[in-house]
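Continuing the batch. This is chain 6 of the set; chains 1 through 5 are on the previous pages. Same settings as before, nothing changed between runs. Recording input and output for traceability.
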Amino acid sequence: AISDVNEKRAKEVAETYKIRGVYPNFDDLVADQSIDMVSVCTPDHLHVEPSIASIESDKHLLVEKPLATNVPDAEKIVNEANRRGLKLMLNFSNRWSPPFKLAKKAIDEGKLGQPIHAYSRLSDTIYVPTEMIRWSDKTNVLWFLGSHVFDLLRWFFGDEAKSVFAASRSIILKGRGIRTPDFYQAMIEFRAGGVAVMENSWILPKGEPFVVDFKMDVFGEKGAIRIDRSHHGSLKMVTEDRTEFPDVYVLTDEKTSSFVRDGLESFVRCVAEDTEPPVGGEDGLAVTKAISSMIRSAEAGLPVTLE
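Output for chain 6:
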């Protein structure tokens, strides 16, 4: 089944993918007793209500990142799912992306030794907050992009954040009437001593060759991993009028798979086989706590220590 306030759009999607049920109101969807699990794909700031409604109807729950845009709401979702014994998974899809998946495998195998420090950058062109989404002033680039990055850093370091120190500015987007910061830059100290830098911007110029700019470097005791998720150059196609670098990490042919689909299918298997999700509610809560702390740090101009 599918639920969307835009019923016309929901019916179009249902017809395309042969979905039997269309519900303009999500309360009607979660009341459907034939449904075992619900995937919440609403905008960043609108995850809580459908998540709690799903849990109260005893549905297993998959939530798109971030879990919530404040700690109390995130805790409420996690606590309610745990209290009812339901499976809760966060769709941090980059954990299934080939370069990050291979990097994690190398770290776990000890090829880098202990991770010491890292640098990460995940940014969008200004097209995203001004044209692609209509609710950019209800979230910020840390929730929208930084949640992906911090989850990966926490995964790679195998550690929790001890403190964060962040800075942001509001100039370009504010000038266009969009009340959300242009960018955040944050330094994270992990409990075991690792240090990482995160950079997330929503004001890259439209002329960039890709909407997304995604890079990450991880340095360990014995080696380093450098990832370029957006300008990989694995495949280059040149014609008389243009040059293209197709994204070979997200294949669209129906006979192939992609890391986006892999993450979703992993949750389906968890429910079908009664196993624990690879990215649970506590992971989503940890990210929400860290991002909230970065926002507070940027507002105060001071480091923030996490609990």
